Amino acid sequence: MKTNVSFFSFMFWLVLGSFLNSCKDPDFQNACDLNSKINLYSNVINAVSGNGNAFCTIPLPLLSPNGQSSDPASTISLTYSKSSYVYYTDHSISNIPETKGTLTSCTINPSLPIGLSINPNTCAITGTATAQTNTTAYEVTAASSDAIVKATISLRIAGSSSILVYGQFGSFTCSIPNNNGSCSGGSVSANNFNVPTGITTDESGTLYTTDFSNSRLLSFPKDTIVATTVWGQSGSFTTNASGTAAGNLNGPSGVAIDKNGNVYLADSTNNRVLYFPKGNTLATRVYGQLNDFTCGAVNNNGGCTSGVVSADSLNGPSSVALDSAGKVYIADSGNHRVLVFPNDGSIVPIAVYGQFGSFTCGVQNQSGICSLGPPPSANNLNFPTSVALDRNDNLYILDTSNHRVLFHPSGSTTASKVYGQNGSFSCGLSNNDGSCSSGGASASNLNNPQGLALDMNGNLFVADFSNNRVLFFPEATTQTATRIYGHNKNFTCIVNDDNGSCVTGTKSASGLNGPQRVTIDLEGNVFIADSNNHRILKY
Which residue intervals correspond to the NHL repeats (predicted)? Predict the structure, then answer.
């Protein structure tokens, strides 16, 4: 019986093959040409004969995880600039990928957060998200008439409620200095803080924070709330002694990391800035103390005694930043100036902001003849506490006691834009009501701001200390904030630990109490040093 079935099966395929062969177009003799009738005939005969290796190999576009076709002959490609994105609620976004060829469709799976959509022809993701979401992986599929490519990206929608807390053992409801793990004060450890101030991140996402009252700098691997490296305490996480040696600190308040992973640390109470090579917790360079690692004098003029202001002295430096060329910018707060140092390791500055070019003057609101103001101007400063540079090396200076932020075009010591004073360079009042009088808080004024930072897109974030909030200013469009942290979209509220109704409440993931610094990592995650709550919050 089996033999008969096999015989009839063989005869069926033989007859079918002969029929197809008799109908083939003599102009097409390439057995692997998809337009040729011989293609089907040849593959049928090969199937019958068992010659599996004789099947035609039909080239199709190969797919790679980033959406870029790995086949050079592919007719289309799809590439997003990054693999991971953080966007914000109530903020318009436009993520336009790079494409090649003519796309006939674009789809995404799973569905995007509410308020966002994907363009079916360009794969651009646009819209305004209305609610926070967790990080989610999405597969984008682009197609043309003859090819398909895919890209995998992740999106997270951030808002004004924190998703991670450092310094309080993961608790959003605790704010104890040197928390022992049960929301009670204890000894210093790798898990706690006592007035965290300066914060920054490196390219790997590692978080660095100066722990001011514990006289140390801590680093945390990405999304880890236990520190793995400590500066200032000889490698110990359980001590908080201060000192003036190359491995000691005393009230550090600012930190910056260069592109090679070297650390610059504003050791404020020691009136110096220290340089630590990557991987080293002993400083090899000191600014402000004439190469003396054992001195912490104010305006050291030699002999480790306090003297007059000079080009190479410092008085309570609180912040440090670097430009694209590696030049070092130091906010010399007590001398009411910002100093710029060359990128060759020299400890002698090459430029000064806030003192009309004078390295020997250190008065607030300098009038141009080394005498006190007022009023403020586009050229002077009153206790600057933070500095930052954008991707074009434009300089932002937080002029704390003038309650403003100054924008200096690259290379210019005269500010061309001011935040916090309704456009006026001659006013320096807290919560300026628009007529150079102190009033209530608004989206365009400040009160004792302590920290600033810029994200990769040039958007400005300001830690508005006495208003218990952090403000977000869109890039180059307005001096009015469009987003707020700490007050549930309320720009007129100033209470600490706002419960969402402009009333001081219990500690939470959304309230703030005296935020001093802010930083944004390469993915767009926002970190705030909520100093009086002795914690760092990630949004």
Answer: 182-223, 243-279, 303-344, 433-476, 501-539
Please report the pLDDT score of residue 239 as a whole number.
98
For position 210, what pLDDT does the model report? 99
Domains (ranges, CATH) in the chain? Answer: 77-158 (2.60.40.10), 161-538 (2.120.10.30)
Which strands sit side by side in the sheet containing 337-341, from one edge to the other?
A: 317-322, 328-332, 337-341, 351-353
> Using an 8 Å Cβ cutoff, are 402 and 428 in contact?
yes
pLDDT score at 43: 44
Q: How far is CA 110 from CA 92, 114, 140, 429, in A?
A: 21, 12, 9, 50
The Cα–Cα gap between 228 and 419 comes to 38
Q: How far is residue 507's CA from residue 163's CA, in Å, rounded to a whole number?
A: 14
Q: What is the pTM of this model?
A: 0.85
Q: From residue 230, give the alpha-carbon distance in Å to each of 218, 238, 282.
A: 5, 10, 11
In terms of residues, how long is the chain? 539
Q: Which tokens sit at 15? A: 């007859």
Cα distance between residue 38 and residue 481, in whole Å? 70
Of the pLDDT bands very low, low, confident and very high (cuts 50, 70, 90), residue 6 is low
Residue 95 belongs to what H/E stretch?
strand 92-95
Alpha carbons 491 and 522: distance in angstroms, whole number: 27
Q: What type of residue is 227?
A: A
Mean pLDDT of 516-534: 98
Assess whether pLDDT exceeds 70 at residue 67: no
Sign of CA dihedral 37, 43, 44, 46: positive
Contact 429, 447 (CB under 8 A): no
Per-residue pLDDT of 369-416, as tens digits, reads 999 888 999 999 999 999 999 999 999 999 999 999 999 999 999 999
Structure tokens at 14: 């033989």
C-beta separation of 251 from 269 below 8 A: yes
Residue 447's nearest CA partner among 417, 482, 491, 412 is: 491
List 404's β-bridge partners, or say none: 399
Sheet holding 395-399, edge to edge: 384-389, 395-399, 404-408, 417-419
| Residue in 366, 354, 351 with CA at minimum distance from that of residue 414 | 354
Report the Cα 4 to chain-centroid distance in Å: 75
> How much is the pLDDT for 10?
47
